[in-house]
C-alpha cells in the first residue's frame, strides 16, 4: 500500500497524508496504471453524471472532463508535454534541444504542442455521447499511465533526474507487468474500441521513444509525462473514429 500511496502522491493532487517513500514506488513502477484508474475514474464523473441525469451536451461534458483530468493530476504530466514541445521544436544540436526542453521558460514550441494536444483531446471527447466520454477518459488515463510504465522500464535516460531514478530501480519485465494491469479495461463493452485504444498507446510509445532517442539521446521525465498526455489524445481520437 505504501507503494501505491507514493504513486498517487506523485501522479495526483489527492490529499493522502504524509509523503510516502518515493523509493517504494520506484521499485514497483509497473504500478503506474493503477493511478490511471484513479485519475480516469475521477475524470469520468461528469460523463457519468450527465448520462444519469439525461444531459446530452457533449461539448460541456468534454470540457469539464478534460479540465478535471488535468486538475486532478496537478498538470504534472501536462508540464512535461510543454517541455517536450520546446525540445522538439528547437533548432540546432542535440545539446540545444535538451537545453530548450529542460530550462524554466515556456516557449512557442511548448504552447504549440500543448494547444494541439488539448484541442485534439477535446475534439475526440466532444464527438462522443457523455457516457462514452467517461469510458474514453478512463481508457486514456489507464493506457497513458501504461505508457509511462513502459518508459520507466525501457526508456534509457539521457541525464539524471526522476526518470533515471525510476529506471535504475526498474526491470525490463516491468513492461509486461504494466501492460497486464491495463487489461481489465477489456471488461468494458465495445472491446474493439478498447483494443484500438491499446494499439494507439503502443504506437504513441514507439513513436515517442524513437523521437526521444533521436532528438535527445534518451528519455527523461518530460518525455514520460508527455506520453501520458499524447496517449490520452490518441485514445480519444480512436473512440471518436470508431463510435461516431
UniProtKB/TrEMBL annotation:
Keyword terms of this UniProt record: Cell membrane, Cobalamin biosynthesis, Magnesium, Membrane, Transferase, Transmembrane, Transmembrane helix
Record keyword Iron present: no
Pathway named in the protein's UniProt entry: Cofactor biosynthesis; adenosylcobalamin biosynthesis; adenosylcobalamin from cob(II)yrinate a,c-diamide: step 7/7
Family: Belongs to the CobS family.
NCBIfam families documented for this protein: cobS
Function as written in the Swiss-Prot or TrEMBL entry: Joins adenosylcobinamide-GDP and alpha-ribazole to generate adenosylcobalamin (Ado-cobalamin). Also synthesizes adenosylcobalamin 5'-phosphate from adenosylcobinamide-GDP and alpha-ribazole 5'-phosphate.
Protein name as it appears in the record: Adenosylcobinamide-GDP ribazoletransferase
Origin species: Methanocorpusculum petauri
Organism classification: Archaea, Methanobacteriati, Methanobacteriota, Stenosarchaea group, Methanomicrobia
